[in-house]
Amino acid sequence: MKLHEIHLKGYKSIDGQDGQIIPLRDVTVLLGANGSGKSNLVSFFKMLNYMTTGALQQYVGKQGVSRLLFYGPKQTESISFELKFEDDAAHDTYEVKLSYGLPDRLFISGEKITYHKIGESKPQQYFLESGGAESELKKDKQQTSKVLHGLLSGIRTYQFHDTSDTAKIKDRGYVDDAKYLRSDAGNLAAFLKMLKDHNKYTKYYERIVRHIQRVMPQFGDFDLEPIPGNKDYVRLNWKDASGSDYLFDPDQISDGSLRFMALVTLLLQPPDLLPKFIVLDEPELGLHPAAIAELAGIVRSAAQKTQLLLATQSTRLVDEFSADDLVVVERNDEKNCSIFKTMDSEQLKDWLDRYSLSELWEKNVLGGQP
């Protein structure tokens, strides 16, 4: 079952009256200028993740209610969303309303589940207990609730921007912190070591190494032995392709190469470990054009096993996908809100015969320009 559509109202730059309907494919590429609202949709997926773990109030506390509600609580009193999931057997819908309350908080004022089996005339609907600080979905014993909670729990948001000297990805990490790749790839070394040492996953580790070598020919392999004197910790050390015993540390990898290592590991990990829905925020940051082309191929491969949403401003990355994969985000100056527009390759056929997608974006044929 896949996430087919989102109807979102009142969240950040999305207005609370009509809201926005955002269709989702196996790969959805969000394209828009700075400040258009791409990052706000990415943060919505982060909020969903907090909700499934019973930590909605932690997210609200970090963000602040005024920042979450469209133009604050004086203009918008609630956030509502409807998530539509589909497969060949049924359509499931999960609807939630988050209302403003004092002192400066959001509470669950409505939570509704709909299950519509294909072939049946009427859907089954039921409401969960509302009025609390957290979602009741995880606690509910009904089968549809369990399925939906499993799907929502499988949504993961990733951003590999931090490659500074103090970034977690460069630091030593606890070797057992390898259940899943963290959102900032802070446990990349431990996760790779788990793949390398696990008989079932070794071939996936080797495939990751091969793809890194295609973009970074000087790369030989990772050296993921525990730190001398402390077998519980590991660091992202590596050796080059020369065959030398010289050990390089993660500070001797360019920022772009380090991000590419994290992206390849995320997307080429074993299928049974893959998140059900992956959100990537500006994955092209710091990558060479050849690396972007390689990344696009890996994304298409991963899309056979999971869904992906990419938020980007990269013309190079956009050209690797079709018009049907695009959702263009732009600012509506009249309503002061974000607008999400889908593209149609048939309608753009005459344009696409002469121009690439990136050229159409730059010419503002697609919209999404400042």
How would you summarize this macromolecular structure in one to three sentences?
The protein is of the alpha/beta class and 370 residues long. 28% of the residues lie in helices and 26% in strands.
Can you walk through the features of this model?
This protein has a 6-stranded antiparallel β-sheet, with helices on one face. A 6-stranded mixed β-sheet has the order 8-13-14-3-15-16. A two-stranded antiparallel ribbon has the order 9-11. The chain has 11 helices and 16 strands. The relative contact order is 0.14. The protein has a domain of 203 residues: 3-Layer(aba) Sandwich (Rossmann fold). Helix content is 28%, strand content 26%. Helix 1 packs antiparallel against helix 2 and helix 6 packs antiparallel against helix 7. A hairpin with a 3-residue loop joins strand 5 and strand 6. The two termini are 36 Å apart. It is an alpha/beta fold and 370 residues long.
Q: Layout of helices and strands, plus pairs?
A:
Layout: E1 2-9, E2 20-23, E3 27-32, H1 38-52, H2 56-63, H3 65-68, E4 78-86, E5 90-101, E6 105-117, E7 124-127, H4 143-153, E8 155-158, E9 173-174, H5 188-197, H6 202-215, E10 219-223, E11 233-234, E12 237-240, H7 255-267, E13 277-281, H8 289-302, E14 307-312, H9 315-318, E15 326-332, E16 337-342, H10 349-352, H11 357-362
Parallel strand pairs: 3-14, 3-15, 8-13, 13-14
Antiparallel strand pairs: 1-2, 1-4, 4-5, 5-6, 6-7, 9-11, 10-12, 15-16
